[in-house]
Amino acid sequence: MNLVVFFDSVRASIFNGSLSHKQVQGCEILLAAMAAREWGDLRWYAYVLATTYHETDATMQPVAEYKRGKGKPYGKPDPETGQTYYGRGYVQLTWRENYQKMQDRLGLPLVTDPDLALKEGNAARIICEGMEHGLFTGVGLPRYFGISTNEPVNARKIVNGSDRASLVAHYHVHFLAALEAAHVPAEPPVDPVVAWWASAPPGAVEWLRRAPV
């Protein structure tokens, strides 16, 4: 991917003409996490970026829930661990059982140290795992972006029902356009013989032609 093209595009279309170091860093970490999963559909990449943009108020940084869950059942310290499992991350991971679920899948000790969900690399893994496999609400990216499906508005159900669904879909359109513009198709494999002939030193090809068999 040509990151210069990608960032030039989203800077103009989404980020109001400027990008901070933290916004760039957040995008790069998410792109790397998604690439590591070898996703083949750029719509998946775009929807994760759009969701992150919306859920983090455009900062592209993991955030802790406002008021730390005060007044909510999950905002009370767990009697066993002493930890409070309020929302953290690019999307709000809440409740001890959900921290446990991500711990089991990703190998991160989130139950004993839930603030690990606020570290960028961990937050990127959590949002990718959750959105791909439907761990947040029961539905995931394959349900809305597949061979015969393209439903960026309904895809909001992956994280938060229908809340601001059209707005997140709007962000998705711009992120997708940037990804498509920046996408560099993989080059076909080069035949080693052809490569040698192309790079052979002057006179080598003529010598081979005249060499006795």
Which helices and strands appear, and what pairs or packs with what?
Blueprint (H helix, E strand, L loop, with lengths): L2 H11 L7 H16 L5 H14 L7 E2 L23 E2 L6 H11 L13 H14 L7 H4 L20 H18 L9 H8 L4 H7 L3
Antiparallel strand pairs: 1-2
Please give a structural write-up.
With 213 residues, this protein is mainly α. It has a single domain (3-182), classed as Lysozyme. It has helices at residues 3-13, 21-36, 42-55, 96-106, 120-133, 141-144, 165-182, 192-199, 204-210, and strands at 63-64, 88-89. Strands 1-2 form a two-stranded antiparallel sheet. Helix 1 runs antiparallel to helix 7 (165-182), helix 2 (21-36) packs across helix 5 and helix 3 crosses helix 7.
Count of strand segments: 2
CATH class: Mainly Alpha
Q: What's the shape?
A: globular
> By helix and strand content, what is the structural category?
mainly alpha
Any idea what the CATH architecture is? Answer: Orthogonal Bundle
State the helix count. 9
| Total domains | 1
Q: Could you spell the SSE succession in H and E letters?
A: HHHEEHHHHHH
CATH T-level fold name: Lysozyme
Main β-sheet: number of strands, strand sense, barrel status? 2 strands, antiparallel
Terminal CA distance reads 47 Å
Brief write-up:
With 213 residues, this protein is an all-alpha fold.
Name the descriptors.
Lysozyme, two-stranded antiparallel ribbon, 213 residues, mainly alpha
